[in-house]
Write a structure and sequence with these properties.
Layout (H helix, E strand, L loop, with lengths): L1 H8 L7 H12 L21 E2 L2 E2 L6 H21 L1
Antiparallel strand pairs: 1-2
Protein backbone atom coordinates (compact mmCIF):
# COMPACT_ATOMS: atom_id res chain seq x y z
CA UNK A 1 0.00 0.00 0.00
CA UNK A 2 2.80 2.44 0.87
CA UNK A 3 4.44 2.12 -2.56
CA UNK A 4 1.10 2.52 -4.36
CA UNK A 5 0.29 5.60 -2.26
CA UNK A 6 3.74 7.10 -2.99
CA UNK A 7 3.35 6.58 -6.73
CA UNK A 8 -0.05 8.31 -6.76
CA UNK A 9 1.49 11.47 -5.29
CA UNK A 10 3.83 11.93 -8.25
CA UNK A 11 0.88 13.30 -10.22
CA UNK A 12 0.46 16.31 -7.94
CA UNK A 13 2.21 19.67 -8.06
CA UNK A 14 3.05 21.42 -4.80
CA UNK A 15 1.84 24.80 -6.02
CA UNK A 16 -1.32 24.95 -3.89
CA UNK A 17 -2.21 24.20 -0.30
CA UNK A 18 -5.05 21.88 -1.37
CA UNK A 19 -2.53 19.75 -3.28
CA UNK A 20 -0.37 19.32 -0.19
CA UNK A 21 -3.41 18.16 1.75
CA UNK A 22 -4.36 15.78 -1.06
CA UNK A 23 -0.83 14.31 -1.09
CA UNK A 24 -1.10 13.82 2.67
CA UNK A 25 -4.44 12.09 2.19
CA UNK A 26 -3.04 9.75 -0.44
CA UNK A 27 0.05 8.90 1.61
CA UNK A 28 -1.85 8.23 4.83
CA UNK A 29 -4.96 6.47 3.53
CA UNK A 30 -5.23 2.89 4.85
CA UNK A 31 -2.23 3.27 7.16
CA UNK A 32 -2.06 2.69 10.91
CA UNK A 33 -2.19 6.49 11.39
CA UNK A 34 -5.48 6.69 9.50
CA UNK A 35 -7.10 4.40 12.06
CA UNK A 36 -6.33 6.78 14.94
CA UNK A 37 -9.42 8.74 15.95
CA UNK A 38 -7.48 12.02 16.31
CA UNK A 39 -5.43 11.71 13.10
CA UNK A 40 -6.88 13.91 10.35
CA UNK A 41 -5.99 12.22 7.06
CA UNK A 42 -5.72 14.92 4.41
CA UNK A 43 -5.71 17.75 6.94
CA UNK A 44 -3.08 19.45 9.05
CA UNK A 45 -2.09 17.97 12.38
CA UNK A 46 -4.19 18.64 15.44
CA UNK A 47 -1.60 17.62 18.06
CA UNK A 48 1.98 18.80 18.60
CA UNK A 49 4.73 16.37 17.64
CA UNK A 50 8.50 16.02 17.50
CA UNK A 51 10.83 14.48 14.93
CA UNK A 52 13.72 12.97 16.82
CA UNK A 53 14.85 15.71 19.20
CA UNK A 54 13.44 18.52 17.05
CA UNK A 55 10.26 20.39 17.88
CA UNK A 56 8.04 20.85 14.83
CA UNK A 57 5.63 23.64 13.95
CA UNK A 58 2.72 23.87 16.36
CA UNK A 59 -0.67 22.77 14.98
CA UNK A 60 -2.10 26.30 15.04
CA UNK A 61 0.83 27.59 12.93
CA UNK A 62 0.97 24.89 10.24
CA UNK A 63 -1.33 26.59 7.73
CA UNK A 64 0.56 29.89 7.93
CA UNK A 65 3.91 28.13 7.58
CA UNK A 66 2.70 26.13 4.57
CA UNK A 67 1.52 29.35 2.93
CA UNK A 68 4.98 30.88 3.47
CA UNK A 69 6.62 27.75 2.06
CA UNK A 70 4.37 27.80 -1.01
CA UNK A 71 5.10 31.48 -1.63
CA UNK A 72 8.84 30.71 -1.56
CA UNK A 73 8.41 27.58 -3.69
CA UNK A 74 6.31 29.32 -6.34
CA UNK A 75 8.81 32.19 -6.62
CA UNK A 76 11.57 29.62 -7.22
CA UNK A 77 9.47 27.98 -9.94
CA UNK A 78 8.99 31.33 -11.70
CA UNK A 79 12.74 32.02 -11.55
CA UNK A 80 13.50 28.59 -12.99
CA UNK A 81 11.11 29.22 -15.87
CA UNK A 82 12.82 32.55 -16.63
CA UNK A 83 16.28 31.00 -16.86
Amino acid sequence: MKIINNQKTLLYKLEEEKNIKEIHKILKTNTSDSRLSWFNVGEYKSKPNMVGDLQTTSPNQVSAEIKKLLTWYNKKQILMLMI
